[in-house]
Amino acid sequence: MCARVWFVSGCFVVIWSALAISSSNGNGIEALFNKLSFLEDKILDIEQAARVSEAKLKAHVEAKEEHRQAKLEAEEPEANNLHANMQDKLAELERGVKANEILLRQQLEQGLQARMADLQGMLDAIERQMKTMENTLQDKLFRVMDRIMTDNMYQLKETLLGEVRKTKENGVPIAGTSNITVQSVPDAVKHEIEHNPSADESEASYRSCKDAPSNVSGRNFMLLNADTFPFEVYCEQISFGGGWIVFQHRFNGQLDFYKNWTEYSDGFGDLEGEFWLGLDYLHRITSLRPHELLVEVKDFAGNYGYALYDGFEIGSEEEQYVLKKLGKYQGTAGDSMSYNWGKKFSTADSNNGDYSDFGNCAADRQGAWWPLGPWAMADGQLTAGRQTMALFARVRGNMCST
């Protein structure tokens, strides 16, 4: 508005100057008024054009604002949807983080539990191993104590029998002998001394069954050398020339041969019936001098066979009674033992076989032996369905003194 006023004022100045000039001329007043009228019309046109332009500009601005507002209103739902989607995604992300946290916690707990279970299993295995070692040591201690007691009993018995012989020879009792006999000697020994005055002769010890004077098979005491104590064995004096130490005898199946390692090491059964002498005794016997091995078998159909080897030796318990030596075979039962040369003895609770594909033969056949061969599991269960199993099996070692 001020600009227009200034513009009009400027026009008047011009006009006034023109009037002044025209007045000085004397004849230009009319022309000047005509020009002023023209200029006034022009000014009105300009003002009108300015108002029109201002109205157009205002309308344009208002239209722009309306368009912007309409666009904002149109985009508001989309923005709201976008905001809602972002909120949903944030919530989903939060849920995913929580789920991963829970999963990681569960995996960690499961891993810790599995590790704890593994550690517990290791501890249990160590505990079982220690228990087994403890039982083994206890068994060995009991065996040593039992042997010491047996040896002491044998020595005491020999001493008393010697006193009895002296009494017989002199015709008078030695002072104190009767008191010792009554007060210090176990009932079994007293009974044997009182009722078997010649027991000292019948229970003499021999280095082998070949040295025993009797030609009748039966029980005898064996003394391997001067550094050992005697133990009782069954001597077979008829088959194959006699002189055999029987360390395994089966004939009626009344004795269960499905035993553990300790029992096979110590021996079990009755020398007058079915029995197993014991791997420890067998090792002591075969390790001192050369031996032969004789195996006699008979199946349920009555078919008989034998296997004779001119050499035989087994290792100690520390060596798992490995079959160290096996000589040349002859016989009719088949050479099953040769497959076991170098093999360790196996029981159900101590599988020392190196043929894992066959499993635990001792457990499968409910017995024990060196692993291989059709009749080599001679201590397995006797069943009529197994024609290759021995019904009548005697394994005997022949003492070959050097």
UniProtKB/TrEMBL annotation:
<protein>
    <submittedName>
        <fullName>Fibrinogen C-terminal domain-containing protein</fullName>
    </submittedName>
</protein>
<dbReference type="InterPro" id="IPR050373">
    <property type="entry name" value="Fibrinogen_C-term_domain"/>
</dbReference>
<dbReference type="GO" id="GO:0005615">
    <property type="term" value="C:extracellular space"/>
</dbReference>
<dbReference type="InterPro" id="IPR036056">
    <property type="entry name" value="Fibrinogen-like_C"/>
</dbReference>
<dbReference type="Pfam" id="PF00147">
    <property type="entry name" value="Fibrinogen_C"/>
</dbReference>
<dbReference type="InterPro" id="IPR002181">
    <property type="entry name" value="Fibrinogen_a/b/g_C_dom"/>
</dbReference>
<dbReference type="InterPro" id="IPR014716">
    <property type="entry name" value="Fibrinogen_a/b/g_C_1"/>
</dbReference>
